[in-house]
Amino acid sequence: MAVLETFYDVMRRQGITRRSFVKYCSLTAAALGLGPEFVPQIAHAMETKPRTPVLWLHGLECTCCSESFIRAAHPLVKDVILSMISLDYDDTLMASAGHQAEAILDEVMEKYHGNYILAVEGNPPLNEDGMYCIIGGKPFVEQLKRVASGAKAIISWGSCASYGCVQAARPNPTQATPVHKVILDKPIIKVPGCPPIAEVMTGVITYMQTFDRLPELDRQGRPKMFYSQRIHDKCYRRPHFDAGQYVEAFDDEGARKGYCLYKVGCKGPTTYNACSTVRWNDGVSFPIQSGHGCIGCSEDGFWDKGSWYARLQDVSGFGIEASADKVGLVAAGAVGAGLAAHAAISALSRVRYKGDDAQ
Amino acid sequence: MSAPDSAILTDGDLKGTNLDGLKARPLRARRLTTVYVYEAPVRLWHWMTAASIVVLAVTGYLIGSPPPSLSGEASSHFQMGWIRYLHFAAAWIFAVGFGGRVAWAFMGNVYARELFFIPFWKLEYWKELLDEVLVYAFVKKHAKTVVGHNALARTALFFCFTLTGLFMIVTGFALYSDGTGIDSWEGRVFGWVMPWLGGNLSTHFLHHWGMWVIILFVMIHVYTVSREDIMSRQSLISAMTNGYRTFRDDRPD
Ligand code: HEM
Ligand code: HEM
Ligand code: SF4
Ligand code: SF4
């Protein structure tokens, strides 16, 4: 077996200075919420551990995850991470193409068998034997299964790979299927979002590269460090929620004053993601900050859970759509009327009947 | 039990009362059979639960559809905060009460158990159920006398109260773990609930629907206990206030 390079070797070869390397280690520690005492530990690991290659596959997708990823806020982080992974296989980012690219894939799979990380963006459609997504002349699902078989762990980028997202929305004609329902025998880390935040993506990949283990996951398989709180828990409009101050319509006084967007359908209270703390585009803003409610893009099945401008889903039946409260009130009215009628008939029948008490 | 006529009071029955020495016959007073049915913990629990459900339904509705926005500084109000606080406080009372009531099913009398299952395999149960339905459809005049819950009441209580109430507790604590975090005890104990029900938003949705099931149940419950109290062969409301159920006749059917 060839001598395996360390991360540090790779970085130096990519023209990253020692100084930048140390800086990168402290940035990483900070991003992962670790104290400064971890910096030497990270540096040591990167200098001595053989580099873990990352293979990045693309299925049915819009490439927004890649777009997000290459916009990681800190240029240093971006450089380092890209140098660590673009070497291997990512058919939208890498220089080579066609047969040459597929050859690299085979080479890495063989050389690092059982040691590489597979990152999946998008998902495989299973209908018609997977013919709705063809990579290099073959259904994507075949490539996915083949590459997954030698992977140490799998990262499901974005809501597509994690949950199915828009291509799996009802009625899901291509039967787009999230990765964990196709690959059953590998540890899978879900990094949902449409797309996920760049810093979250780089944070996850850096953690795995430096510590050589999976980050701690929640019950659904999401890294706890980024997905253990809701948008609502750290939203800067939360004081207005607690006070009872809401935007009632997008052009009202409350909207101008920056009140809470709960009544116009904000899904912050049901969405686990880091937007309200990390924000987007180098921390510039996030949807709620620009006046629109969260649409819950990092939650399972968010396309199929009703309007983005209503809190709860309507129920439909007999061609009518109505909210739970409307149906409930109508039902309560009907039951009330029924009880009143029943009471009236009961009273009448009692008048006619001379009960046992009268004997 | 004796035939109805023998329940008419005799002169001897008045001995020792303030009517001692009077003739009993013209009083036309009858002796009624009374049974102690619901023990004090059940009664206390019933009214506590009723009160907590009223608070839960009102605050729950307001969590779903908050009142019109307040003006002024956010720091001078805590309206939604209080609504949620009341919901959670009442939720704790309801949930702890429910747990206590389960425990009492093991410690209390035989009627304390009726709330938690229906005797599905007993033919008698289905006959009584049909009888009650016929009474409510004005086909029959009277059903059998019952000491605990009648079969129809028991069925409604089991599905619309016991199971729905349990569902509200389970989904409620799962939603509560959104606030306390996945590593809190709520998160660890009830963390399976939301993925199982199709996610966080769906859990809100079903918790909200559960409220309407309970509201409809309470409307019907209050109507039927009042109606039965007036029209049936036994008293109802006293059974839930002082524990005693009185039978208006002792006919054996
Ligand atoms: C939110 C409101 C209420 C709820 C959730 C509720 C629930 C219940 C439950 C669960 C039982 C069964 C008790 C057991 O077996 O341990 C019960 C029985 C009873 N409740 Fe209520 N209740 C409510 C309101 C009321 C009100 C307002 C009244 C009075 C008018 C009432 C009168 C009774 C009576 C008389 C019984 C005994 C029924 C029987 O003997 O079969 N309840 N209720
Ligand atoms: C019979 C009992 C109950 C009723 C009728 C009830 C009703 C409701 C309703 C209607 C909502 C609003 C749902 C929405 O539109 O999103 C709600 C929310 C909630 N309920 Fe309950 N609930 C009950 C019991 C409980 C219990 C036992 C708990 C346990 C802690 C609980 C915890 C919650 C929580 C955490 C929320 C979400 C609050 C938020 O989003 O800020 N509920 N409840
Ligand atoms: S805007 Fe949305 S996330 Fe922010 S406090 Fe209101 S409901 Fe919660
Ligand atoms: S605020 Fe909500 S909808 Fe917007 S990106 Fe974040 S999780 Fe997605």
UniProtKB/TrEMBL annotation, chain A:
Q: Where in the cell is it found?
A: Cell membrane
Spell out where the chain crosses the membrane: none
UniProt keyword terms in alphabetical order = 3Fe-4S, 4Fe-4S, Cell membrane, Iron, Iron-sulfur, Membrane, Metal-binding, Oxidoreductase, Signal
Enzyme Commission number(s): 1.12.99.6
Tell me its cofactors: [4Fe-4S] cluster; [3Fe-4S] cluster
* Catalytic activity from the UniProt record: H2 + A = AH2
Annotated [4Fe-4S] cluster 2 binding lies at: 232, 235, 260, 266
Binding positions ([4Fe-4S] cluster 1): 62, 65, 160, 194
- Sequence ranges assigned to domain NADH:ubiquinone oxidoreductase-like 20kDa subunit in this UniProt record: 62-207
Q: Pfam families annotated for this entry?
A: NiFe_hyd_SSU_C (PF14720), Oxidored_q6 (PF01058)
Quick one: a GO cellular component term? ferredoxin hydrogenase complex
Cytochrome-c3 hydrogenase C-terminal domain location: 227-307
A molecular function (GO) term: electron transfer activity
PROSITE patterns in alphabetical order = TAT (PS51318)
Q: What InterPro entries does this protein's entry cite?
A: Cytochrome-c3_hydrogenase_C, NADH_UbQ_OxRdtase-like_20kDa, NiFe-Hase_small_C_sf, NiFe_Hase_small_N_sf, NiFe_hydrogenase_ssu, TAT_signal, TAT_signal_bac_arc
Binding of [3Fe-4S] cluster: at which residues?
275, 294, 297
As for family, the record states:
Belongs to the [NiFe]/[NiFeSe] hydrogenase small subunit family.
Q: How does it assemble?
A: Heterodimer of a large and a small subunit.
Q: What is this protein called?
A: Uptake hydrogenase small subunit
UniProtKB/TrEMBL annotation, chain B:
Q: Which GO terms describe its cellular component?
A: plasma membrane
InterPro entries (alphabetical): Cyt_b561_bac/Ni-Hgenase, Di-haem_cyt_TM, Hydrogenase_cytochrome, Ni-dep_Hydgase_cyt-B
Origin: domain of life = Bacteria
Tell me what topology the record assigns in the membrane.
Multi-pass membrane protein
Q: Which residues form the Cytochrome b561 bacterial/Ni-hydrogenase domain?
A: 37-243
Keywords of the record, alphabetical order, are: Cell membrane, Electron transport, Heme, Iron, Membrane, Metal-binding, Transmembrane, Transmembrane helix, Transport
GO molecular-function terms, A-Z: electron transfer activity; heme binding; iron ion binding
Mind listing the GO biological process terms from this record?
respiratory electron transport chain
Chief subcellular site? membrane
Membrane spanning residue stretches:
44-64, 85-107, 151-176, 205-225
Record-linked Pfam families:
Ni_hydr_CYTB
The compartments listed are: Cell membrane
Extract the NCBIfam families matched here. CytB-hydogenase
Protein name per the record: Probable Ni/Fe-hydrogenase B-type cytochrome subunit
Q: Which lineage? A: Bacteria, Pseudomonadati, Pseudomonadota, Alphaproteobacteria, Acetobacterales
